[in-house]
Amino acid sequence: MFRAHLSFVFIFFTAFTFGQITFVDVVPDSCVCVTAVPSVSNALTSYWDLDNDAVNDFSIESSSNYSNCNLGFETTALNALGSNSVAGDAPTAGNNSAFMLNAGDAINTQPSWVSQTWLRLFSHFTGFYGTYWAMVPGTYKYAGIKFYSGTTLYYGWIRLNVEVSCGVAKVIVTEYAYSTSSIQAGLGSTTSVKEYNKDNEFEVFPNPNNGSFNIKFKDNHFIKSLSINNVMGQEVKLVEAPSSELNITGLSKGVYFVKVNYSDRTRFRKIVVE
Known about the structure:
It is a single chain. The protein has strands spanning 2-9, 14-18, 21-35, 40-48, 58-65, 73-80, 85-89, 97-98, 113-114, 116-123, 127-129, 141-149, 152-165, 168-179, 202-205, 213-217, 223-230, 235-239, 245-248, 254-262, 266-273. It folds into two domains: 2-179, no CATH class; 200-273, Immunoglobulin-like, CATH 2.60.40. The strands form four sheets. Strands 2, 3, 7, 8, 9, 12, 13 and 14 form an eight-stranded antiparallel β-sheet that branches. Strands 1-4-5-6-10-11 form a six-stranded mixed β-sheet, with no helix packed on it. A four-stranded antiparallel β-sheet has the order 18-17-20-21, with no helix packed on it. Helix content is 0%, strand content 55%. The protein contains no helices and 21 strands. Mean pLDDT is 78; it is low at 1-12 and 189-197. It is an all-beta fold.
């Protein structure tokens, strides 16, 4: 039996902060997805550095192992690294299950936390296990997390879609958020519950582009500055007083981030110059 094990580190994200809360829009959605055929098994592990400090905080695993649909199993898991943890319980040894949270559920008051959790497992011998039932595309739930960045403890959530069936194991992540204070799944802090239409703040077009592109703002009155940064975080271009629409030229091939500093938050968007 051939077993392929793939591993990658999640790198690109779109982040913006409201007060103490940092939201990260995963661009594009991350699919930790595997499929298997008779006599072939596959596994994939994705490592997540949520606060971009060069230390991985969590891993997401998907695996499919079977010879036919009467044997073997498929699994999806969310595991905490180091002294971090996931909101969940441990009904039996080795069978920890992540809580399936809804928007508005408080994270910091979850009743129990564990380091390793099944999202969903499908055994061809015993059936399903785990709280994350197979969901139709576009339907998502939240996993509660807490992690350390240095000595600072953060509470947060990861928005997930999970699917397991005969020969298929998938975890799709669309966004996550974290805060040093109390936080609610899908919303924000318990003292300021809002949802933000981040897609309408500004648009970049065309993207990808040839080094020349436009940035158009829905409202530029609260923008303090705009810069273009490379993947190392180095500033390559600065616009101190952005107008409602800008034309940026002269970038060489590569991946960059448009960084917009508003009066109350910072917003990033990835661009590709081909």
